[in-house]
Amino acid sequence: MDMTSRSTIPEILEAYEADLLAEWSRELAIANNRGGLIKEAEMQEECREFLNVLRSAAQHNNLTNLQASEWRDVREMVESVARSRSQKGFTPTETAMFVFSFKQPLFDRMRQHLKDSAALSEEIWQATTLLDQLGLLAMEAYQKSREKVIQRQQEELLELSTPVVKLWDGILALPVIGTLDSARTQTVMESLLQAIVETGSEVAIIDITGVPTVDTLTAQHLLKTVTAARLMGADCIISGIRPQIAQTIVYLGIDLTNVITKATLADAFRVALTRVGATIVRTQAK
Q1: What pLDDT digit, counting tens, does each position of 212-229 carry?
Q2: Cα 69 from chain centroid?
Q3: Residue 33 has what pLDDT?
Q4: 53/63 Cα distance (integer angstroms)
């Protein structure tokens, strides 16, 4: 095909719109064999809207540069459909099929419309290239949507995994469970310092009973948290140091001499009560 000649794709989209919509809907129904994820009426409306914006963009006879302004509505439509399908539980393949399943109806109409085999071959190649780009765009939008969900869940898990609880007037506790990495340690520090400001607490207990291992980086993060708390006017006690963790700290040469450490949370709480001038007395013997 002469590169200066106009493509017949816009003409085919215009002439066979109703047939394309009906055949495409059937192709999508077959591809999306998991019922209930989307209503048929909603799917047909998406197809109708996509055909409208596709026809409008194709009329500019620029079928190769999807970044051009005339393709903006098409890109936004595809990205919107991909995000919606991601939230509804569609798989990446099912999402991409929204675009790819349009190939067969379009190719059938091209064969019906074009009698010259060379022109037909060139038009099918253009349509394939165009729809492949739109399919990849759908996959990219789907992936970004899933990544946002995962990132939000990770942030929520971080907040849930670093609860700062008030044990007594002036005494806070921060039980840590799992591995401490840089991002989580930053969340731990921010949560603890914010709680110290809000409650005016004098003592904060960082309990690491649920931390499986302590390495140099973890210990440094803990020391930074303790130092930051001191700057806020609160003393920190690190509890839950099991024998194997104590051995690791000694082996690594980490200096915790300026930090109060206790084997259990109960021991740390007892020290904290003393610091705030409180005592617990049994009301009766066991």
Answers
A1: 877 777 778 888 888 899
A2: 29
A3: 64
A4: 13
Residue-level pLDDT at 163 = 85
Report the length, in residues, of the chain.
Answer: 286
Token pair for 249: 């700290």
pLDDT exceeds 60 at position 130:
yes
Q: How many Å apart are CA 203 and CA 168, to the nearest integer? A: 10
Pick left, alpha or beta for residue 36 (phi over 0 → left; psi -120 to 50 → alpha; otherwise beta): left
**DSSP per residue, the chain:** --TTSPPSHHHHHHHTHHHHHHHHHHHHHHH--STTSS-HHHHHHHHHHHHHHHHHHHTTT--S-TTSGGGHHHHHHHHHHHHHHHHHT--HHHHHHHHHTTHHHHHHHHHHH---HHHHHHHHHHHHHHHHHHHHHHHHHHHHHHHHHHHHHHHHHHHHHS--EEEETTEEEEEEES---HHHHHHHHHHHHHHHHHHT-SEEEEEEEE-----HHHHHHHHHHHHHHHHTT-EEEEE---HHHHHHHHHHT---TTSEEESSHHHHHHHHHHHTT-----SS--
- CA 196 remoteness from chain centre: 31
What does DSSP say about strands 260-262 and 171-177: parallel, antiparallel, or unpaired? Answer: unpaired
User: Which is it for the CA torsion 231, 235, 240, 242, positive or negative?
Assistant: positive
Place of tokens 């780009």: 133
pLDDT (0 to 100) of residue 1 = 47
Largest CA distance in the chain: 102
pTM score, two decimals? Answer: 0.64
Predicted local confidence at residue 2, as pLDDT? 47
